[in-house]
Design a protein that fits this description.
The protein has 16 helices and 23 strands. By secondary structure, it is an alpha+beta fold. It has a seven-stranded mixed sheet with strand order 5-4-16-17-18-15-19. The protein has a six-stranded mixed sheet with strand order 9-2-1-13-22-21. Helix 10 packs antiparallel against helix 11.
């Protein structure tokens, strides 16, 4: 058919299948013969699955794709995630004293005329309630391992914001089934070559099983190998090791201590001497991974730290090396990279899937139905580069405020390792809290209140004492703080236990 556009996605996994399903739905592939989407998936290359957590945007994505939430939860062994709890990031354990704080998904409570954040900042630092606990009910709910919703509430809805923990391989299988139902063609074959045309664009790719395959737009979802965008087209990789130092993860899964053990509804991120350890509660197991900087910690010491955290050595761990960074040109001529081939920063805050969602959405919105297929490249690259840079700033914030004394943490606190824009904002935030005008929303993954949770969880000193007279409604603010506490207590009592809800969903009839 004249004018038909062919999209060939090379690589499956979460990136390939999520992109395929999203584009098929957004572009109406099942109803339109003018667009064809094919996924070429290797039968020999497995899914890395770095991190098994998501951000609340995944709910909108799954709903858009037409996947029932209950179906998703069952198919992927998923549990609910209400944020990230950070243990020992401010300082190392001292004489049995440990520091922890929560980054919840709920925004701080406020009314039309009252923002609680400045009133919290004006309270006595030594005696005030921790920030997340003071401004959102989600802190109490998560602390008591309650679920963010009830069994009778609608799919993807509930009283609290949430995301999920899930099995990455099972997710890819589920999304693959949905993508095929939406009109995506599935081919199995190992990529063996990429041929360029005289202008330097991809003429076709070569597969061992399928031979030569042509397309108008090639989507590189080949993971860290970046076989199209990097190997064939030579798009340079921009390392951010000068800001983010971790470059290794040692990951494993271990069973719960007992079948009825409570499941945390947050990711637990516990700092260690040269990085941190994730702990994710799935329905049948815990996913645990030691993230570290190879410049500050040996592989043998990382394995020792993982064993110490798990409490035994009866598990199989896999090593996942990565270079933190991204490609400033993720769309080159007729090829666009999505997922690990475009870039990866680190597992902290589960940004991997968020970036896949953002890229797929942008490709769908910018997709050239006619004319040069590379027309959106400049805009796409500018927007994605800005998004990556802003995530670097947000992740660096977690590290640079630490008071830990180990070399890794001292290096992170060195001003020369902090991006210039973040240094500027930290200077401003000494005199005011982060607000929405600090960020351009279309370029951001995290909102201003996400920064507030990290800043004040890490006890950053924003001093509003000179402006105390500008906040005269202290009595009203205290009443609102009391309401938040009361609502949090009530919510923790009313909402089901996390494992209880997961079990109820898995037992319910289809």
């Amino acid at each position: 058919m004249a004018g038909k556009r062919k999209i060939l996605i090379v690589g499956g996994g979460s990136a390939g299948w999520l992109t395929a399903a999203y584009l098929a739905k957004a572009l109406g592939v099942a109803e339109r013969a003018a667009i064809e989407i094919t996924v070429l998936e290797s039968p020999e290359i497995g899914i890395i699955g770095v991190g098994e957590g998501t951000f609340p945007t995944i709910r909108s994505t799954l709903k858009f794709l037409g996947i029932d939430e209950t179906q998703f939860l069952r198919a992927t062994a998923a549990t609910f995630k209400q944020g990230v709890r950070f243990d020992d990031w401010l300082h190392a354990p001292e004489a049995g004293r440990r520091h922890r704080y929560l980054h919840p998904f709920e925004a701080p409570f406020q009314t039309d005329g009252m923002n609680l954040v400045p009133y919290w900042l004006l309270q006595e630092p030594a005696t005030r309630t921790p920030f997340a606990e003071a401004v959102t009910i989600q802190s109490q709910v998560a602390a008591e391992r309650r679920a963010p919703k009830r069994t009778n509430e609608s799919g993807y809805g509930g009283p609290l914001s949430y995301a999920y923990h899930f099995d990455a391989r099972k997710l890819a299988t589920l999304i693959q089934e949905r993508a095929v139902a939406l009109g995506v063609q599935h081919l199995r074959g190992l990529l063996t070559g990429v041929e360029l045309d005289p202008d330097g664009a991809i003429a076709h790719i070569v597969s061992r099983e399928q031979g030569a395959l042509e397309a108008d737009l090639f989507v590189d979802c080949t993971g860290f190998r970046a076989e199209l965008i990097g190997e064939a087209l030579g798009a340079r990789f921009h390392s951010v090791r000068d800001h983010l130092f971790t470059d290794r993860a040692l990951a494993c899964k271990v069973p719960h201590e007992r079948a009825d053990a409570p499941i945390e509804s947050v990711t637990i991120a516990t700092a260690h001497e040269a990085g941190w350890t994730w702990d994710i509660g799935l329905e049948g197991a815990r996913g645990i991974g030691c993230v570290y900087s190879s410049a500050h910690l040996s592989d043998a010491r990382a394995a020792e730290l993982l064993r110490d955290y798990v409490g035994h050595d009866d598990f199989a761990a896999r090593s996942i090396p990565f270079e933190p960074g991204y490609r400033p040109q993720q769309w080159v001529k007729n090829c666009v990279a999505v997922g690990l081939s475009a870039g990866f920063l680190e597992p902290l805050e589960s940004t991997g899937v968020v970036l896949i969602e953002a890229a797929a959405d942008m490709i769908a919105e910018l997709f050239p139905h006619s004319g040069p297929v590379e027309a959106p490249a400049r805009r796409f690259n500018a927007l994605m580069t800005a998004r990556y840079d802003n995530i670097v700033h947000f992740l660096k914030l977690h590290y640079c405020l630490s008071r830990r004394s180990e070399p890794f943490w001292r290096d992170n606190a060195d001003p020369s390792s902090i991006p210039e824009r973040l240094r500027e904002l930290l200077g401003e935030w000494r005199h005011r809290p982060p607000n929405r005008f600090d960020f351009v929303i279309d370029l951001e993954t995290f909102a201003f209140f996400n920064y507030q949770y990290i800043l004040y969880g890490m006890e950053y000193p924003t001093d509003l004492s000179a402006a105390r007279g500008d906040f005269p409604h202290g009595g009203e603010a205290e009443q609102l703080f009391a309401r938040v506490r009361s609502f949090g207590t009530q919510a923790a009592a009313d909402l089901p236990g996390h494992r209880e809800l997961v079990r109820a969903i898995n037992r319910a009839a289809s």
